[in-house]
Amino acid sequence: xxxxxxxxxxxxxxxxxxxxxxxxxxxxxxxxxxxxxxxxxxxxxxxxxxxxxxxxxxxxxxxxxxxxxxxxxxxxxxxxxxxxxxxxxxxxxxxxxxxxxxxxxxxxxxxxxxxxxxxxxxxxxxxxxxxxxxxxxxxxxxxxxxxxxxxxxxxxxxxxxxxxxxxxxxxxxxxxxxxxxxxxxxxxxxxxxxxxxxxxxxxxxxxxxxxxxxxxxxxxxxxxxxxxxxxxxxxxxxxxxxxxxxxxxxxxxxxxxxxxxxxxxxxxxxxxxxxxxxxxxxxxxxxxxxxxxxxxxxxxxxxxxxxxxxxxxxxxxxxxxxxxxxxxxxxxxxxxxxxxxxxxxxxxxxxxxxxxxxxxxxxxxxxxxxxxxxxxxxxxxxxxxxxxxxxxxxxxxxxxxxxxxxxxxxxxxxxxxxxxxxxxxx
Length: 426
Fold this sequence. Notes:
The protein has 18 helices and no strands. By secondary structure, the chain is an all-alpha fold.
């Protein structure tokens, strides 16, 4: 453990020294930490070694995802929700199911050894997105806030929705899926509706309590930040034993806390955002060191081709279909379609599936998932800055066109701390 701590500390210091310089280049933090992990892990020097089934890796990934979802949601301005919700709404409720469907169809043709439930697992594990892998996309102020916030909101909510699909497909693969439509609806209600209720309840009570205590001068500044983070942890901790989605509960709690404390408390989310950033890099380090090497050894040409298709056709076609009937034009739809990176959520789902089942085909499911995440880290990371700059230029050139006003004239909103370029104002 001591060598882990020393290596992790040294990597963080090294990245910190060049973080501002790298923020506007094609090199991102996740790219560097995955590479460092791979070179130092089981495939390289063997300095950072443990088994992929080590429960501590899963705990790290789950904690990271929950904290990141909470902190990102807390800075979303929900005052314009009605006018802006159509982008994430279409991505989540049209685009995501279509992504799973298209992913299943292509996986079924490319991996004939897998049954319908197993290809469903692959498609569902790779359905959620991770905005951290395209940092510039949600931090570059030249990208209209409607699109930035839409992609960020999609990233926050699709993890829990994808988890629902994963649980259903896993139950089918193991032969334990209840045939009753009522049972399925009951499961969905418990997984999602109960998570939303817990998130709203815990977020509202926690936010109101923090505001009241702060106005009375009872709370020390650092504990105000710790208390804010603890609201998200509480929501996650109550949801999981109730068999609801802890990730959705944490995201909703963050959204609620942000709404309750906005304009009344300042910088209450700084600690949770900083911790989320650190845990994100640790997660990608662990991914490169522990989870990626076995996948690289087992990867075939079919796996690589599916990974490429997952980041292109399987993502971009459903996004395009989901935006039919809106005023968004082709460059915007292409931009949103490409920047749907696969990251920590897919790692979490793949790890949970691997731990919870003894399916003989699970190794292939996990291999496809990990290879796709690795490809996404580098493909989306390398294109995020230049892509956001090019798209921002196009938006500025078309800002006067009536059809583009919904994209180009959205007021600025706060940017999550972990998405800000060093030195960037909120």
